[in-house]
């Protein structure tokens, strides 16, 4: 009986994987990988068998039950199986289902965290997700539920919506209905972490205008304090949490 290592590949280019992730990937006998992982990562595990089990919204995808069964089957045949997931495995990556399938089969597993798309998007745009005194909380949400409904709330100072590329107009309407003011800043980033990443700056009222630039691409939307422009004044509020504890 082998073991399964869940590795967060990062949100884009291969060099966003962590050092630990790269080391574990090099040990793999077989790799079950997502659709959005960089093909260049194959160079880190050249002797492994690579199997595409990717999922894409509104497109043909591998059923979750098939992935669960394949993980168990591969772990019964190989010493080290890597489940390579885009971004971080624990954020909208169906990690719970796959862990449960392995646990039922008595197969050991390990999780190596990765850089999630929200962090890469904020970094490239130089928009800190937390801000002293005015941005003390961040919430991660999916823009699409299992029933393909768009559910929006006002749960934090900064809200990040994943898988939002096809629903930007509706997202703007639902944000207004949830209590976000029309002039709330909104940052839209598609293909975060890739060389061809695209960014555009809006507010809640004009979010629909981003559709033409981002539709059809993996997209995150950052709304609220974390999407606002930098404060360049020397008289910034010094209240709030100490650096590193935001």
From TrEMBL:
<dbReference type="InterPro" id="IPR000878">
    <property type="entry name" value="4pyrrol_Mease"/>
</dbReference>
<dbReference type="InterPro" id="IPR014777">
    <property type="entry name" value="4pyrrole_Mease_sub1"/>
</dbReference>
<comment type="pathway">
    <text>Porphyrin-containing compound metabolism; siroheme biosynthesis; precorrin-2 from uroporphyrinogen III: step 1/1.</text>
</comment>
<dbReference type="InterPro" id="IPR003043">
    <property type="entry name" value="Uropor_MeTrfase_CS"/>
</dbReference>
<dbReference type="InterPro" id="IPR006366">
    <property type="entry name" value="CobA/CysG_C"/>
</dbReference>
<protein>
    <recommendedName>
        <fullName>uroporphyrinogen-III C-methyltransferase</fullName>
        <ecNumber>2.1.1.107</ecNumber>
    </recommendedName>
</protein>
<dbReference type="InterPro" id="IPR050161">
    <property type="entry name" value="Siro_Cobalamin_biosynth"/>
</dbReference>
<feature type="domain" description="Tetrapyrrole methylase">
    <location>
        <begin position="3"/>
        <end position="205"/>
    </location>
</feature>
<dbReference type="GO" id="GO:0032259">
    <property type="term" value="P:methylation"/>
</dbReference>
<dbReference type="Pfam" id="PF00590">
    <property type="entry name" value="TP_methylase"/>
</dbReference>
<dbReference type="InterPro" id="IPR014776">
    <property type="entry name" value="4pyrrole_Mease_sub2"/>
</dbReference>
<comment type="similarity">
    <text>Belongs to the precorrin methyltransferase family.</text>
</comment>
<keyword id="KW-0627">Porphyrin biosynthesis</keyword>
<dbReference type="InterPro" id="IPR035996">
    <property type="entry name" value="4pyrrol_Methylase_sf"/>
</dbReference>
<dbReference type="GO" id="GO:0004851">
    <property type="term" value="F:uroporphyrin-III C-methyltransferase activity"/>
</dbReference>
<keyword id="KW-0949">S-adenosyl-L-methionine</keyword>
<keyword id="KW-0489">Methyltransferase</keyword>
<keyword id="KW-0808">Transferase</keyword>
């Amino acid at each position: 009986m082998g073991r399964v290592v869940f590795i967060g590949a990062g949100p884009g280019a291969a060099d966003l994987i962590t050092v630990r992730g790269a080391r574990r990937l090099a040990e793999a006998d077989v790799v079950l990988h997502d659709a959005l992982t960089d093909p260049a990562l194959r160079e880190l595990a050249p002797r492994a068998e690579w199997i595409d089990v990717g999922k894409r919204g509104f497109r043909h995808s591998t059923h979750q039950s098939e992935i669960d069964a394949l993980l168990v089957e591969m772990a019964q045949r190989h010493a080290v199986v890597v489940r390579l997931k885009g971004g971080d495995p624990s954020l909208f990556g169906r990690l719970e289902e796959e862990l449960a399938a392995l646990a039922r089969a008595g197969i050991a597993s390990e999780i190596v965290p990765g850089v999630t798309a929200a962090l890469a998007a904020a970094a490239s745009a130089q928009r800190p997700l937390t801000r002293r005194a005015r941005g003390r909380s961040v919430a991660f949400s999916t823009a699409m539920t299992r029933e393909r409904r768009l559910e929006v709330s006002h749960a934090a100072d900064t809200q990040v919506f994943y898988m939002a590329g096809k629903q930007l107009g509706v997202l703007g309407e639902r944000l207004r209905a949830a209590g976000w003011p029309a002039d709330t800043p909104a940052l839209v980033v598609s293909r975060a972490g890739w060389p061809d990443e695209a960014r555009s700056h809006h507010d809640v009222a004009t979010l629909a205008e981003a559709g033409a630039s981002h539709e059809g691409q993996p997209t995150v939307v950052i709304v609220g304090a974390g999407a606002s422009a930098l404060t360049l004044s020397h008289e910034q509020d010094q209240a709030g949490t100490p650096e590193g504890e935001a």
